[in-house]
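#help-structures
NK: newbie question, is this the right format to request a structure? protein is Class II aldolase/adducin
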Amino acid sequence: MAPSAVVDLLPTSSISASTKSQDVNAMAAMAHRGKALPSIPKFASHAETRQWQLEHMAGAFRVFASEGYAEGISGHISVRDPEYEDRFWINPLGVHFGMLKASDMICVDLDGEVTGGNIDGSINAAGFQIHSAVHRARPDVHAICHTHSVYGRAWSAFSKPLEMLNQDVCYFYNAHSVYSDYGGIANEASEGQKIAASLGTGKAAILLNHGLLTVGQTVDEAAFLFCLMERSCKVQLAVEAAGLEKHLVPDEEAAYNFKMASTPETLYCEFQPHLSYEEYKCQGNYKA
């Protein structure tokens, strides 16, 4: 059975907000006088939710293009379908991040069968193995980001986790892992399965000799975490190069920072300025 039709425009009247209390508290605490930013929207139908997801997915690719994460045909973002949990949407092979639109995405099931969307497009084989394995292992995950970004690849060569060098990297405190068993291009299911196992229940993984992978309940969360992890790798490399004594964020403060800043709602909000700027630059043409 094919997914419900994708709508062209989303009526704002169908949007309602539903937020867990702990997320509300964390979001409100970040605003002066406790006025929280708008939370993750909810929609009246699967079709509206799907279109919203695909638009934000395409927007995330535009952000990644602006950040310089494109590298040939490598790199992918996937989003689980809101109606069929055994299916996800992924970008077509060979299209630059900066050109992707919502209508370009391909829907595929966990067995590799294309079920909708841009059926004329091709899917990165290694990307399918990685994303299908993570989606299968982590039903709580709705979005996955992976690219061959420069600083992520550089830091991955050390096969070490990030240190809590500053406030921002605490978003990954005790929530990221290192996959240190690099097995080449992930064209086989076993490599994807090992990456998924290494990720565990975390938000991100550093893949030895490969790059970074982040996950989230929304594509916005996963994309923001990817950008943050890439910048954190850049900071870590700069600190290592300086060769001076490090003063790490203490565990208690790191845990507090993580609690306050790493909820799905907060991370969704963190990505909105980046997404809005891309929409402003291209007048929202990625939504088509």
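mod (FA): yep, format's fine, and the tokens are attached above. Confidence is low (pLDDT under 50) at residues 1-19.
NK: thank you!
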